[in-house]
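Researcher: Here's a chain I'd like modeled. Treat it as a single chain, no partners, no ligands.
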Amino acid sequence: MGKPYEGASLHSQAADFPPSLVRDSPPATPQNDDDDDNNQQTNWEWESVSGLEQQQRKSLGKLSTRGVYWKNPTQNACGCALLLLFHGGDVDADGNCLFAAFQKAMRMNPNVTATDLRRKTVARFLHAYESATPQEKEEIDRTIKNLYSPRLDAGWGVHLVQEHKLLAPKRDRYGLNASIQQLLQLSFVRETAAECIYKERCIVVEDGLSWGKYMSICGSSDDEYDIITLQYTEEGLLSVDENSQGRAAAFGDDIAIYTLATEFNREIFVVQAHGSDGMIEDDDSCLFFLPHRPRSEIFHPPVFLFMKGTGWCGAGADHYEPLLAYPAPVISQEKAAFVL
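Model: Modeled as a single isolated chain. Structure tokens:
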């Protein structure tokens, strides 16, 4: 997908992003709509980003003023950069946020939608899955099963609630609802009746092929399947999210991030900023960079995604937002706020 970066070439991103969407350097002050040649809303100051505590804003501000030093891990003597990171604006919290945030972080043409990226991700994954060895497929399937159909006799020391994801074909929803109604007439409780029918007649997300069907779902009427979510506590069934309107989308997971990294020959760093809920007193320990390395040589600078959440205490979050990376004029590891 291109030549590996030389150190000096990282000072221009014209080779990576459409020229019309590239700036030579980040603006020093927030921009008005009239100043934005692409009519894109971008928040340049962390003070304007919602849902953050002051401790988080202070730590994140260092990313914009001092940057992060990155060295290409697949090369020995070239491919390093000091990158300044800025918040890239909000994206809809509709389940497609990973792909929408990636689109903005990459400065892709606006015609490339989150749905386009979702489809590309699924296609890339299925291609790799089909060509994998039996041992590799077994490992992938085990990971997916643990994520979306975990054993209910284990894991309660980590999560109080565990979920099973099922896929209901949209064409079968009328029949599924009719079968549930029949059980209700036999004095079944609604949740129990729904669990029984969905577990018997829906697709369990437990391997690479079912993951591909699941991750294809963007919450539109064009989806082939609806997502059904069964929630359990250690005592048993807690609730059934029947997604009766068919609007739920599959949230992007680590598998999708690794697949995007491979598709675009880049590392993807998920940036977490912990506040008081993480019980971290040292501002310098507030930020975490979770790397996702492609299964290929890295030809381009990394992409950064901001994972925002409240009350997660290191267990993860539920919303991705883009971070925009700009090469600093001078490559200096000593000046960086963080070394990756």
